[in-house]
Amino acid sequence: MIAATDPLTYFLWGLLALLLILVLVLLKFINLWIQAYMSGTKIGLFQLVGMSLRKVNPTVIVRGAISATQAGLPLNVRDLEAHYLAGGNVINVVRALIAADRANLGLDFRQAAAIDLAGRDVLDAVQTSVTPKVIDCPPEGKVAAMAKNGIQVLAKARVTVRTNIKRLVGGATEETIIARVGEGIVSTIGSSDSHKDVLENPDRISKGVLSKGLDAGTAFEILSIDIADVDIGDNIGARLQADQAEADKRVAQAAAESRRAMAVAAEQENVAEIAANRAKLVLAEAEVPQAMADAFRSGHLGIMDYQRIKNLESDTRMRSGIAAGEEAHLSTESNKKKMPGQE
After folding, report:
1. By CB count within 10 A, which of 18, 214, 267, 284 is most buried?
2. pLDDT digits over 177-193, tens only?
3. Whole-prediction pTM value?
4. Coil, strand, or helix at residue 96?
5. What does the longest C-alpha to C-alpha distance in the chain come to?
6. DSSP state letter for 5
7. Contact 219, 231 (CB under 8 A)
8. Which residues contact 162 (CB under 8 A, 6 or more apart)?
9. What would the 3-class secondary structure string for 213-272 be?
């Protein structure tokens, strides 16, 4: 009798253990199921167990579903699980959907999930779309630009933007807005004839920048650009002109030095040529006596002719000596007149 009842006893004990394990497992999720049930969210108890088996945090899914249901946005639990498994922030997406619904932004779950998986803070994007934020351009310091008269102008702008939900995925970030606004400020100041025009009408900068459509292709819509501060910098034009003048001076000095060197070379060439011509003259004069001797031998030159030549040479030397003495005397008299204290 005892042996016959042993298998039944084991079966009953095993069934009791199985029921105990099942109760313990269900007790783990019963609290979440009650919360979902009391909030009107349709999530079954065994569905919560399946989430745990699929490595999905049931608490996150239940909290997200309850928040959406209470806000009047019933979401598919399967979509929440899929977004969780994809690495998304379920709670942040649900909060963003609730905020977008209150603001009538027309944001659906697929778009919000795509923004979240793209690495953007979808809740912050919705909040920025509802409440625009201000971006300093540049974040630190001022944008430096030069007007046409060469005076540097320093400007700082404050850009009011709001998020464009439709362009948030794939749209450029705040850094692009800052860069484009800075470029627009430089372009507007550079097109001004004088720095005084910028100081008198700072709004011409904001109008010029806004007219360029700088928010194209970005995740933001520019609402306004306000010039927070304008200041005068250095006289860049005068400094550039001074540098150019110094460079021109050095070029002119180099050219003058080159011409001087060429002149010295030409002078030395002339000196060498004069020396060569004098050598030729000496050679030619050396041939005169020989020519006179040949003339004597050939009978073309007589004694009287030779004597007349000698007389002419003596007369020439005498006249040259007299002329040199007169020139020296005139020079001495002239120096005496120039000396101070002499009458």
Report:
1. 214
2. 888 888 888 888 888 88
3. 0.57
4. helix
5. 191
6. H
7. no
8. 128, 129, 130, 131, 132, 133, 220, 221, 223
9. CCCCCECEEEEEEEEEEEEEEEEHHHHHHHHHHHHHHHHHHHHHHHHHHHHHHHHHHHHH
What amino acid is encoded at 249 in this protein? K
Count of CA atoms in the C-beta half-sphere (13 A) of 216: 6
Identify the CATH number of the domain defined by range 133-238.
3.30.479.30
The full set of domain ranges for the chain reads: 2-130, 133-238
Q: From the CB of residue 268, how many other CB atoms can be counted at a distance below 10 Å?
A: 10
Q: Report which DSSP code applies to 104.
A: T
DSSP strand E in 138-202: where?
Answer: 143-146, 151-163
Contact assessment for residue 112 and residue 88, using Cβ atoms and an 8 Å cutoff: no
3 state SS of 156: strand
121-150: pLDDT as tens digits:
888 888 888 888 888 888 888 888 888 888
DSSP H/E element including 135: strand 133-137
Q: In angstroms, rounded to a whole number, what is the distance separating the alpha carbons of residues 177 and 210? A: 12
